[in-house]
């Protein structure tokens, strides 16, 4: 097995690296050389541990937050769940998990957009968007809906469900969908970045999907684990 590319080393990170390496070593099609493990201290003895790899041509990402004594074992379990999702296109991952990274609260009005990223939204159907979202351990996925061509977002609702929001169309998809899916029936607002920040400040929602004023493309403002915001824009 090839050596893993590791960002950090020592203690918890070494245990996580060993567990992920052993797991991927037994997975046909896994590219161990594409894997890495990253640790971030959250305070109070809690750590945020993340692994990234490539399996059978798919990128996977697993992220857990837990006491440092437990986080390496939990990460291995999460990576195993991500890999198994490849064999069950109609399945779903449990959400939200007990080891989901906490979000800092109580900072309304003081948050800033700490990260901006423009993405080329992949053209795909909701089922493919759900698979990509689950493999990457995301709570939402920004993509271009293949049925309408519209910038869209898929996100989790409850422990088993998914919801689709398109920029304009609020009708359910015409083609069959395997995952349990509902459709957002509320209009997607057109906002500036500052307006989106203000609206998210006023709620407890994890993110806001909106049409970006000026470009009129889909964008998602979301809460980061450190309490600040991130912004994804289609382009």
UniProtKB/TrEMBL annotation:
GO BP term, pick one: negative regulation of translational elongation
GO CC field: cytosolic small ribosomal subunit
Family matches, as Pfam families: Ribosom_S30AE_C (PF16321)
Any one GO molecular-function label of the UniProt entry: ribosomal small subunit binding
Residue ranges occupied by any Sigma 54 modulation/S30EA ribosomal protein C-terminal domain in the UniProt entry: 111-164, 183-231
Membrane-spanning segments: none
Highest rank taxon of the organism: Bacteria
Record-given protein name: Sigma 54 modulation/S30EA ribosomal protein C-terminal domain-containing protein
Lineage summary: Bacteria, Bacillati, Actinomycetota, Actinomycetes, Pseudonocardiales
């Amino acid at each position: 097995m090839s050596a893993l590319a590791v960002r950090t080393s020592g203690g918890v990170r070494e245990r996580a690296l060993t567990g992920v390496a052993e797991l991927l070593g037994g997975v046909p099609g896994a590219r161990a050389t594409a894997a890495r493990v990253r640790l971030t201290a959250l305070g109070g003895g809690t750590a945020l541990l993340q692994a990234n790899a490539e399996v059978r041509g798919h990128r996977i990402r697993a992220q857990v937050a837990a006491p440092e004594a437990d986080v390496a074992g939990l990460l291995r379990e999460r990576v195993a769940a991500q890999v198994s999702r490849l064999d069950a296109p109609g399945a779903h991952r449990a959400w939200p998990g007990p080891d989901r990274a906490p979000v800092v609260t109580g900072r309304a009005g003081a948050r800033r957009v700490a990260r901006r990223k423009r993405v080329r939204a992949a053209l795909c159907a909701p089922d493919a968007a759900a698979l990509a979202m689950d493999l990457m351990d995301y709570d939402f996925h920004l993509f271009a809906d293949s049925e309408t061509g519209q910038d869209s977002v898929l996100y989790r609702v409850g422990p088993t469900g998914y919801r689709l929001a398109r920029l304009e169309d609020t009708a359910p998809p015409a083609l069959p969908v395997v995952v349990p899916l509902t459709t957002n029936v509320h209009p997607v607002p057109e906002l500036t970045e500052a307006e989106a920040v203000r609206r998210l400040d006023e709620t407890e929602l994890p993110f806001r999907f909106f049409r970006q004023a000026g470009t009129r493309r889909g964008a998602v403002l979301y809460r980061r684990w450190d309490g600040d915001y991130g912004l994804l824009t289609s382009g």
